[in-house]
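Weekly modeling sync, notes
Attendees: S.R. (lead), two postdocs, one rotation student

Agenda item 3: backlog of single-chain predictions. S.R. asked that every request posted to the team notebook include the full sequence so nobody has to chase files. The rotation student volunteered to paste the first one in as an example of the format we agreed on. Action items at the bottom.

Example entry:
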Amino acid sequence: MSFPKNFLWGGAVAANQLEGAWLEDGKQPNVTDIMVGIGTRDPGIKWNEETGKWEMCLNPEKKYLSHEGIDFYHRYKEDLALMAGMGFNCFRTSIAWGRIFPNGDESEPNEPGLKFYDDLFTEMRNLGMEPVITLSHYETPLHLLTEYGGWSNSKLIEFWKNYVTTVFTRYKGKVKYWLTFNEVNAMLRNPFVAGGILNITDPKDKNDPIGSITQEEIWQGYYNILVANAWTVKIGHEIDENNLVGNMMTASGTATYPDDCNPDNVLGALNTQRMAVFYMCDPMALGEIPGYVKRIWNENPSLTPKMDEEGLRLIRENTVDYIAYSYYRSAVYAVDANMISNTGGIAGKKNPYLKESSPKPWSWAVDPKGLRYTMNVLNDRYHKPQFIVENGIGLDENLDENGKIDDPFRVRYLEMHLKQVHEAILDGVPCLGYLWWGPIDVVSAGTGEMKKRYGFVYVDRFNDGTGTLERVKKNSYDRYKEIIESNGEVLLKEE
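Predicted structure, as returned to the notebook:
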């Protein structure tokens, strides 16, 4: 009745949210470097009428906290030691593509960037942690967007192949678990960051770069990313037969419930699941572009991307080894509800059966059973191993008068979700592991602030950029350590 013997326990972060050193050792800007939170529509680029191109133009009135992050680039040994202190046997982070190929289109890599991750992965392994590495976590080099239009341009497939071949070769034997594109299924609602797309030919509003992205560009980017994902699986297996290459979805939308048994609500919930998650995960895991996507193209022929038989064959023959995903909350679909989405997933009608939500200001409804539901749905659909690589809760908290943080809500959230993970494992779901999102406080992806803290470790940094960067263990640190040391049994005995 315990968790599997070789269960992977750990935490997850992203290079762009904690490394800092955004222009150090040859690195050039990526798409998230010019944004203060990916939930905004105001990236730091402007249209230059003389050159006819988008150019970086950061707003001097904004604070780009991600440029310094929590200085993980220089403090990673200290931070990894804190993670190892909880008993982590794995740790997820990403490779900033722009550290390896600063502009993305170079033929030769940047050695200082390669060396940084060499040293990082060596330190992880020395501490007994398996690296779980995302190849692109909202980190497409900005140059690839402003010069080529991003993933709507098929040239990016070749640039990507050069990148992944380089890192697979360099880190052979050091990294086994790879993820391709982080939460790439969010590209329909966030094409600039999640899809890495920009209209460079004829933007309809030169003051709104995100709003100028067309549906035609988005669907072409969809196909190109599917081909790139397939190439990643193929190249990864060819370079090292021990590599396991997974995709990475924001899977919260899987737990979209119909408001009632009205067939319109039932079908609406199904369509929400499809267009939030399955439209991307189906071809990556099953090898076929689904019929409900083809229907969109059939009914809107201009949206049909340029495809070729070689690309479709690659998609068919190179499906991912496992399904990795984030889960934060569930949603309720109703035909009269305003279905909105953000980095936490989809939000629709309030669910009267969920009795608890996180404290203000974010107030996310807590639905641990939605995670069990998600795990079972994905297992029934794909019959592949699963890896929960993001689950967590952001809270507004600061040190008390004794220099400590008591965070019982985070502990309760962790325990409730892990108990449902165990239930899903008993249901027969093959689950590789569980990674808490943000085991150390990082810059929030959605809002670009430090105020929204997920960590078991507090970092003394604030929204105005001040702070000592001191690391302090929260009370939840010891609880997660107890859970990991017992392989989850301490939770099950307390039920």
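Discussion: group reviewed the output briefly. The chain has one domain: 8-493.
Action items: rotation student to repeat for the remaining queue; S.R. to check formatting next week.
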